[in-house]
Amino acid sequence: MADGSVPQELNPLRKNNTGYDLRYLLIGSEGALGIITAASLKLMPKNPETITAFCAVSHPAATVTLLHTVKGALGDTVSGFELLCDFGMNLLAEHFPDDVVPFEQSYGWYVLIEISGHAGIKDELEETLAAGFESELVLDAVVAQSDAQREDLWRLREQTPEANRLTGAICNSDTSVPISQINAFVAKSDAAILAIHDGLRVNSYGHIGDGNIHLNVFSPAGTTKKDFLASHPESRKAVCMAINEVTHDCGGTISAEHGIGSLKTSDLEMYCLPGKFNALKSIKAALDPNGIMNPDALFSD
C-alpha cells in the first residue's frame, strides 16, 4: 500500500465475509491504490477434450443467438466465443497472407468457438452446429481436427490487433455492452462513425460471451492515417466520442478490460455516475493521501 504496509489476502477460502474485499478493490485499480506483490491461484484439472470451430454468420445478432444455442446445448464448457468481421479478415490477409479464412467465399461475420469438457463433446458441438445449418443460423463452419488446425484458427483472432496496428487505426475502443445490445451497438456505432466521414472503415471484433466489443476505425481506403488526420484533425476525437455515446446509450461501459489510464480520465468523469465517481476519489484519497501511487491514472487531478 502507499504507506508501505502489506495486507495479506492470499487465503484461498471460497467464502470470507469479514469486511471490504481488498482483493477486488485492488483488481482494476491500475496501481492507483497499491501494488499486488503476490497471488494465490486456483488450479483446475485439464479437460479431456478441447475443440475449436470457426463459423460464418450473417450479422452480429446471429452470433448472439448462436452463443445462446451453444451454451444451451453445452453449458459452461464454452471457453471462447469471439466475433470477427470480414473487413478485419481482409486486413489480416493483407499483413499475414499465410493466415486465411478457411472458407471458399467471404461472409460478413464470423465466430470463433472453443469448448473444453468431457470426452465426446466434439460430437455434441458438431450436432449443435448441424442444427444451426438447418435453421440457417450458421452459414458455413469448420471444426479443427488437430492441435495445428486449432492454432491456425486462433491466429485469425490473435493476429487481429497486430493487423490493426500495422494498418494504423485513428481510434481504438475497448467498450462493453449487455450481450443483448451487441447487434444494436455495432449498427449504431457504424452509423455514427460514417456520419463523421462516410469513408471511414471499422473493424469490429471481440468477446461475445461478455459483451466486450473492440472497434478499430481506419482512414478511408487509399489514404494514410497521417494524411487523413492532417486534413481532418477533429476526426479522431469525434470518432472516439461517438463510440462513447453509443456505448452509453446501450447501457455499456467505456472501458471493459484495458482500463482508464491517463488518456480516458475526462471520459471517466463524463460517463461515470457522480456517486460512484465521488466514491472512487474518496477511496483514492483515503488509501493514497499523498497521491504517490500511479498519480496520472484514473483522475485528471
Explain what you see.
With 301 residues, the chain is of the alpha+beta class. The protein is built from eleven helices and eight strands. Among the domains are: 49-161, 2-Layer Sandwich (Alpha-Beta Plaits); 168-249, Alpha-Beta Plaits. It has helices spanning 22-26, 60-74, 86-95, 121-134, 147-158, 160-167, 182-196, 225-231, 235-249, 265-271, 274-287, and strands spanning 49-57, 78-85, 109-117, 140-143, 169-172, 175-176, 201-207, 212-218. Strands 1, 2, 3, 4, 5, 6, 7 and 8 form an eight-stranded antiparallel beta sheet that branches.
List keywords for this structure.
301 residues, alpha+beta, Alpha-Beta Plaits, 8-stranded antiparallel β-sheet, 11 helices, 8 strands
Write the layout of secondary structure elements.
Blueprint: H1 22-26, E1 49-57, H2 60-74, E2 78-85, H3 86-95, E3 109-117, H4 121-134, E4 140-143, H5 147-158, H6 160-167, E5 169-172, E6 175-176, H7 182-196, E7 201-207, E8 212-218, H8 225-231, H9 235-249, H10 265-271, H11 274-287
Antiparallel strand pairs: 1-3, 1-4, 2-3, 2-7, 5-8, 6-8, 7-8
Helix pairs in contact: 2-4, 3-6, 7-9
